[in-house]
C-alpha cells in the first residue's frame, strides 16, 4: 500500500481494482500515512527510566483488579502473578516480558484490499469519532439515530483523508441496546469498503462481530479484520465486560486497543509523569493479558488522556498537558515495540467554532508528531465527546490532509532544490511563470477542499459564510456524490439473514 | 527574568517594582517563555548542508540587488564583494563570515524593567499582529483608525501571555502617512510599559523612533530599546527605504528582524527546500549588511513564508508547507547562532471562525516547536493579514498560554512522580480528594480565561454563545479593567513636545 493519494482504479489491475473502479466512480482516496519525519520526543532517557521503573513498582506493590473474572485470575496465577481476591500483583518484569509476543505491526484487512491498513511502524491510520450519544448539525443538537449513523458512514466513505470507517461513530439510540451493534456493523460492511471496528459492549457482541466478519470475508482464517476499543477502567481496574470482549477478539486474532480512559486529576494523578506511569502500568497489564489469551494477538498501546477543569470538574481538551502526555506515551509505546493509539479531534466546545478548532488542531498536531499509529476520533468530535457533529466531521476530515502532507517530509532531490529556478528568476523576478513552478505547482502545496480563500468582495457577495456554513454545503455535496461500493449480493444476503435470525432470538433491551 | 507567571510587584523590591505595583493594580503578567523542551528538527544534516551550500552558490552566481543605494554598494565593494551596477555577488563564505559578529542573544529593554525581554537562546517572546489596514470586531470590517490602534495597545497591555506591545498593530489610516508613526509610538510609550517596535517606512522615521526612545529612556546609550521589522523584497532584493531604516537602527544598536517576505510559488520556488535556500541566502546578506554598518548590532533571522493557492493566487496560511519551512528555518538560524523570528496567528479566513483557529493553531504549534525566539503576529491576525481582529486578538492571546505551559517541559521530581498518590488511591479509587491532588491542582493544568467548559444546560441558558461572542465579552472586561501604567509626567511632556514640534514641521502626506 503506498502513501499519498491515488484515484481508485488507477492502482494495479487485479479484480479488486476493477471492482473498485466499476463501483465507486470518481472518489479519490489517500492511502494511510507513512511518516518520513522524525517523532517529537520531549521525555529524556532519565524520565523514561523513572516512569518504567515506577510502573513496575505499581504493578508489584499496588497491583491491578480483575473483578468478577475467575478465568482471568486463574491465568494470572498460572503466569506467576500474586493473586489476592480480585487483586493481581505482578512481580517485576512479568508484564513487560509477556508483552514481547505482541506484534509491533499488523495488517487490518478491508473488504476492498486497497483499503487494507498497516497499523504500527511509521504508519498513521485515521478513524472517525467514536461513542457520542448526541449528534449536531445546522439544525441543532439531538439524540443520535441509526439514520445519523449511516449518514456518518457515508461521509466517512467519501472523506479522502480518512482511512478507516471507525466503530460507534455515534450511538444509534433509536435501536435497542442489545441489537444496535448488528445495524452498526451492517452499515460499516455495506455502505463503505474501508476497515472498521467491532462491538465491545458485551462479549457476545464481540462474538457476533467476529461471526459477521466471517461471513463478509468468506472465512477470517486468523486474518485481522477488526480493531476494537478496550477501555481500562482507570485507575488499575479491568472490568469483566471489556475483558470478555478482549478475550473473544484476542482468541480470534482480532486487534484490540488497550486504552486507559483517564481524566487527569480524577482517574490519575494531576501530574504528567504520574499519569504516564499509571498509563504504562495499565497498558502493560492489558497487553500482557491479551498475550495470555493468545500469544501474538495484535494489540495497540492506547492512551486517552484529558485534563480536568478544576473549577467545574469538566474535562478539557487540546491542552498542553494532554499534548505532553501524548508525546510521552508515544515514546513509551515505541520502547515496548507496540503500535500506538492517541490524539484526535478533541475539544470541549458546544459548537464547531474557534474553540473547537484550536483545541482540535492542538491535538491533531501533537498526534502526528507523537508517532501515533492509530488515531481514533480523528474527525467529528464535539463537546467533550458527547456530540458527533456533522459539520465538524467534514472540517476535521479536511484538516487531516495537512497531516498527510506534513508526514511526507521534505524532499531534497535536485528538482526540490530548484536551483535552476532561482538562477532563472534572479533578483526582483517572479516565480509564477517559471518552468520549475509550472512543472511542480500541482503537487507543491496541500489544498483544502473546504476553507475559503476567495477575494473579500466575492466572499461578501456569497453571504459572508463562516466555516460552519461552508461545511454544511460540503456535507450535502458529499452525500449527493455518494456511491455505495459494490458488495456481492450473496454476501449481503447472508449478512442480512444472520442479523435477522439473531435479532429474532432476543427481546429488545434498552439498558 | 524568570519564566512563568508572576503578579506584578511581587517580584524584586526595586523602584521599578514598587512603581509597577503602585500603578498597575492587579494585572497578572507572564514572563517571556524559556523553553525546557527540545526543538523539532525535521531536516537531516544532509539536507542542511545542501541548503547551506546552495545558498552560497546563489550569493556567488546570482547575487542580490541593492537598488538606489550607493553607500551600500560601496560598503559591499570594500568588504570584498563583486559589485556590478546594483547587483552584488558575494564570494563563498563572505556573508556567513560577516554574520559572525551578530549576537546570538540580546536584551530589549522596556521602560518597566520587569518587562525587559531576552531575545535568542531558548527564549520565546510574543508580540501582536503587525500591519493590517483594516480592523474587524462584532460590528464588521472597516479601515483602522488611531482609536483602534490605542484599543489594541490597551488590550495588549492587559494580555497576560503577551510579552511585547508590537509595532503597527493596525495602520491608523485616519492619520497622515508621514505622521502616524509619532502617534503609534506615543501609544506604545504611554499606554503600556511593555517593549515595542520602531518605524521602518522611511529612514527619517527610524531616526524619529530612536529620538523618541532617547527621551523615553533618558538617553539610550547603546541599549537596545526597539526591535523593528526589515522586510526583504524577495527574491534577492534589498530596497533602499528598508535598508535606510536598517542602517539607522543598526548604527544606534537597535535590533532589526531581517525577514524575507515570501509567498511561496511567487517570490520563491514552489518547493520547501528551494524556499529555505533562498531565505537563507537573503537573511545572510541582510545580517551581513547590518554588521557592515555596525559590528555586533543585534539582528534576528526572520522567515515570513506562506504558500499560495494556485487556483486563486491567494496566499494561504497554517499549511503543512509553511510548518515545514518554519521548522527548517529554525534549524538554519540555530546553525548561524542567530535569534529566530517566524510563525504567528496566521490564517486566511475572513472571520474569527474555525478556519481561522485551525490555521492559527497549526502555526502557533509549529512556532513553539521550531524554536522561534521572537513571534510577531502572535495574536489578532485575520484575512491573510489584511485585518486586525479584536475578537481574534483575545482568542489568540488566550491560546498563547498553552505555549507557556508546553514550554515548561515535564517535571520529573518526586512530587511529579506522584507514587504516593498512586499507592494511596489504588485500583478503582478516585484522585480528586487525595493529598497530592489537593497540593498540586492549582498549578497542574493550564487554564483558559476564555473558552467554555460549562454544562450544556448552563451554556444554553446563557444564549449558546460561541467563541466570538465570549471574546466580545472579554474585550469589554479587559478594557474596563485597564489601568494606564505610570509614566513620569516630565517624560510624557517631553515626548508630546517632540511630537508636536515634528508634526508642525511638515505638511500632511497621505501617500
From TrEMBL, chains A, B:
<comment type="similarity">
    <text>Belongs to the trimethylamine methyltransferase family.</text>
</comment>
<dbReference type="InterPro" id="IPR010426">
    <property type="entry name" value="MTTB_MeTrfase"/>
</dbReference>
<dbReference type="Pfam" id="PF06253">
    <property type="entry name" value="MTTB"/>
</dbReference>
<dbReference type="GO" id="GO:0032259">
    <property type="term" value="P:methylation"/>
</dbReference>
<protein>
    <recommendedName>
        <fullName>Methyltransferase</fullName>
        <ecNumber>2.1.1.-</ecNumber>
    </recommendedName>
</protein>
<keyword id="KW-0808">Transferase</keyword>
<dbReference type="InterPro" id="IPR038601">
    <property type="entry name" value="MttB-like_sf"/>
</dbReference>
<dbReference type="GO" id="GO:0015948">
    <property type="term" value="P:methanogenesis"/>
</dbReference>
<keyword id="KW-0489">Methyltransferase</keyword>
<dbReference type="GO" id="GO:0008168">
    <property type="term" value="F:methyltransferase activity"/>
</dbReference>
<feature type="region of interest" description="Disordered">
    <location>
        <begin position="1"/>
        <end position="23"/>
    </location>
</feature>
Amino acid at each position: 500500500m503506498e502513501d499519498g493519494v491515488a484515484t481508485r482504479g488507477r492502482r494495479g489491475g487485479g479484480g479488486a481494482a476493477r471492482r473498485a473502479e466499476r463501483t465507486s466512480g470518481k472518489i479519490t482516496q489517500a492511502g494511510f500515512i507513512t511518516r518520513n519525519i522524525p517523532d517529537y520526543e520531549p521525555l529524556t532517557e532519565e524520565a523514561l527510566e523513572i516512569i518504567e521503573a515506577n510502573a513496575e513498582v505499581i504493578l508489584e506493590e499496588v497491583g491491578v483488579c480483575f473483578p468478577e473474572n475467575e478465568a482471568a485470575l486463574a491465568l494470572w496465577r498460572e503466569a506467576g502473578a500474586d493473586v489476592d481476591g480480585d487483586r493481581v500483583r505482578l512481580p517485576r518484569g512479568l508484564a513487560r516480558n509477556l508483552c514481547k509476543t505482541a506484534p509491533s505491526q499488523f495488517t487490518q484487512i478491508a473488504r476492498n484490499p486497497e483499503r487494507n491498513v498497516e497499523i504500527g511502524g511509521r504508519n498513521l491510520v485515521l478513524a472517525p469519532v467514536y461513542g457520542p450519544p448526541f449528534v449536531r448539525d445546522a439544525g441543532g443538537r439531538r439524540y443520535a439515530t441509526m439514520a445519523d449513523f449511516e449518514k456518518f458512514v457515508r461521509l466517512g466513505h467519501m472523506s479522502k483523508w480518512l482511512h478507516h470507517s471507525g466503530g460507534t461513530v455515534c450511538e444509534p439510540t433509536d435501536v435497542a441496546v442489545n441489537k444496535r451493534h448488528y445495524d452498526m456493523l451492517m452499515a460499516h460492511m455495506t455502505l463503505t469498503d474501508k476497515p472498521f471496528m467491532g462491538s465491545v459492549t458485551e462479549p457476545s457482541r464481540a462474538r457476533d462481530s467476529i461471526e459477521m466478519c466471517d461471513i463478509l470475508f468468506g472465512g477470517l482464517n486468523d486474518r485481522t479484520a477488526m480493531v476494537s476499543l478496550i477501555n481500562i477502567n482507570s485507575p488499575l481496574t479491568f472490568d469483566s465486560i471489556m475483558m470478555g470482549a478482549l478475550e473473544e477478539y484476542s482468541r480470534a486474532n482480532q486487534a484490540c486497543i488497550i486504552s486507559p480512559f483517564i481524566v487527569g486529576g480524577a482517574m490519575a494523578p494531576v501530574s504528567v509523569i504520574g499519569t504516564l506511569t499509571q498509563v504504562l502500568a495499565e497498558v502493560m497489564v492489558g497487553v500482557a493479558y491479551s498475550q495470555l489469551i493468545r500469544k501474538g494477538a495484535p494489540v495497540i498501546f492506547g492512551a486517552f488522556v484529558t485534563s480536568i477543569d478544576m473549577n467545574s470538574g469538566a474535562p478539557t481538551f487540546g491542552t498542553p498537558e494532554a499534548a505532553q502526555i501524548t508525546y510521552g506515551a508515544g515514546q513509551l509505546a515505541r520502547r515496548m515495540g507496540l503500535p500506538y493509539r492517541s490524539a484526535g479531534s478533541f475539544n470541549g466546545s458546544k459548537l464547531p467554532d474557534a474553540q473547537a478548532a484550536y483545541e482540535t488542531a492542538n491535538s491533531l498536531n501533537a498526534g502526528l508528531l507523537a508517532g501515533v499509529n492509530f488515531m481514533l476520533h480523528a474527525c467529528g468530535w464535539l463537546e467533550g465527546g458527547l456530540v458527533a457533529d456533522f459539520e465538524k466531521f467534514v472540517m476535521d476530515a479536511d484538516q487531516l490532509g495537512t497531516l498527510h502532507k506534513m508526514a511526507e517530509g521534505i524532499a531534497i532531490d535536485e528538482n526540490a532544490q530548484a536551483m535552476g529556478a532561482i538562477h532563472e528568476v534572479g533578483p526582483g523576478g517572479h516565480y509564477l511563470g517559471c518552468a520549475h513552478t509550472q512543472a511542480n505547482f500541482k503537487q507543491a502545496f496541500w489544498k483544502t477542499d473546504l476553507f475559503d480563500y476567495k477575494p473579500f468582495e466575492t466572499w461578501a457577495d456569497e453571504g459572508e459564510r463562516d466555516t460552519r456554513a461552508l461545511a454544511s454545503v460540503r456535507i450535502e455535496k458529499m452525500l449527493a456524490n455518494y456511491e455505495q461500493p459494490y458488495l456481492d449480493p450473496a454476501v449481503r444476503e447472508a449478512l442480512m439473514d444472520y442479523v435477522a435470525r439473531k435479532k429474532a432470538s432476543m427481546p429488545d433491551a434498552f439498558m
